[in-house]
Amino acid sequence: MADRFEDMAGKRTASRARGQSRARGSQQSERRSTSSRVNSQNNTTRSSNNRYNRRPDREPNYGIIIGSAVAAVILVGGLVFALKGGLGGSSNSSIEETTYAVEETLDPNSIHEDVYLDISSFAAGAQLLNINGMNQQQVKDAIKAQYTWNLVVNNTNPLLSKFSMPELSSGETSSETAAEAGIQADNDGTEQTVEVENPYSSITIRPEASSFAVPDLIEANLDEMIAQIFEDIKSKETQETKESSSENESESSTETESVVTADYALALPDFKSQINDYMSQLATVWKMNPKNGDITSYDRDTGEFVFGGSVDGYELNAETTAAKVMEAINNHNYSSQIDADGKTVSASLDSIKDKYKIIGSFTTKTTSNSIRNGNIKHAAAAINGTVLQPGEEFSFNQTVGQRTEEKGYGGAPAYNEGEVVTEVGGGVCQVSSTLYNAVFRAGLTTTYRRSHTFAPTYVTPGTDATVSWPGPDYKFVNDSDHAIGIRTWYSDQTMNAQIYGVRVLPEGVSWELVSEKAMDLPVPDPVIITEGTESEGSAGSEWQAYKVIHKADGTTEKVKDHYTHYSGHTPKKYSPEIAASIAAEQAAAAGLTAATDENGQAVVETPAGESGDSTESTEHEVVERPEDNSEPEEENEPVHEAPSAPAPETNAETVHEYIEGPVPVLGDSLNEGLIEEGPVVGG
Predict the structure, then answer these.
(1) The model's pTM
(2) Cα–Cα 20 to 30 A to 374, which of 71, 270, 401, 656?
(3) How many Cα neighbours within 13 Å face the side chain of 196?
């Protein structure tokens, strides 16, 4: 990487020659000794300059030469004597131990010669770094020791105390499946998922509300830079080993200068694009929209939404802030505290309270089951008064929480895997379904909805939203420009839902959700039972839901919205043995004889006449089974019926409230109408 480091080619050759001027054994010793010279003070010059100084010319001393030869002979003889086990030692043991010690000191992943790195671009005043004896991690640690990175950008929003950090997701979508949530109930329902553009979906940084610690960009690039240097050194070492010994001897007489120069000069990477990206993300996260007197909360004592005063906003200038950060990096000021450039966005001083109205409303009728109605009342009370700021997503399960007996929920009929069971919190699906229809009419976006497995009765099939704990859930997002409030309450076998906010749809335009049956599905194949009650089952159905747009000019547009599938109830039939047993019991009670025909059906035989005519044919009478009933009942009224899909016009259990043009107000003022229409539900 020419842009990451520079191989000082000519200077590296000189350094290599200096290394080759020493005997091989002394090279290893000196390399190990120089491995500790990693600090800046010991890297400026070699530890022994006289090794590289030029020596004066002089006549050879033959006496010294002869004496050296004799000493060499004596040394060789002593070595041979020792290797043959002289002096009572074991030659094999000595050799093995010596070899083991040498191998242990040589790290194949380390540099075994003097190689100098110029790292002055990373830290002002940094000296040459000798990496002799170091592996890649040690080189990285030595470079990091030359600088300290603690670069922080501060949020200069003057209204920081009123700023709330947005929720930065982990990339998960709004959709969820029954299998993922471990759901057993209504796991065959049709899912409807809508992905809403999330302004924070591409955010990778995780700043605090008041500051952002810029990641150490030098460290992030060191591994790659060092790896390339090591690869280059190893490659050159391999080539040098191919040189002949005669060439090495001729080079050994070369005299070199004592000045130490860099073999590689590391260059500071260009961090401009990364810093620009970080600051652009920071501008998105730290953006504070002005509040123009929207609703902020709900007062349960008065039953009214509370409006807040106008609050200014704030915007960060990503371009100028990035320039300040880059200036600090280029000046090696890696521990700077940088104040972000930003400006205040003024909020409107006009009151917005008079723009808030009921923008979506829906009502459904409940059953006479007191426990089920109590569950509906509790769930509605938990949702009532919820305020969603622009961009916030509502979750039924997060808002209501788990339905438990400790919270006042009771057991009521519900479907679980196609069977009618008593479930704590049964009936709360009517709350989510009613809210879904109100949200639709307000012009807001439902992000996740699942239909029931079987067709409901309290809304037109195709317009329901089932919920269970911990899932499936019902979710929608406030994709309007202002905060919205949710009103939900139960009263007199009626479930009510209202969305309170600034009109989302154009003036004079309203949306209606209608559903029409597309087809009937065949009754499922029966299952054989040995206990319980037989049932005939019911047919399934499929429904097409439409968004009906009523325009200001009086025209209407009908647009397909979603398609829903509902399963039919599976018939239950007794096994032949159980059927025969029941027939026998009934026959015995009537003084008749029970039997079965060739098809295994239970029949009874009438006694022969008094004439005793043996040729008289026997009359057979089919015994009727118990009356089939596949619908759950509570207090003589079904909770979840599975009808043959009644048409919307004949669904008496659903009350649709459509909004045409301006929303009607029920009281003298808007808030009075809200309170009179839906008194606050406690507990």
Answers:
(1) 0.61
(2) 656
(3) 17
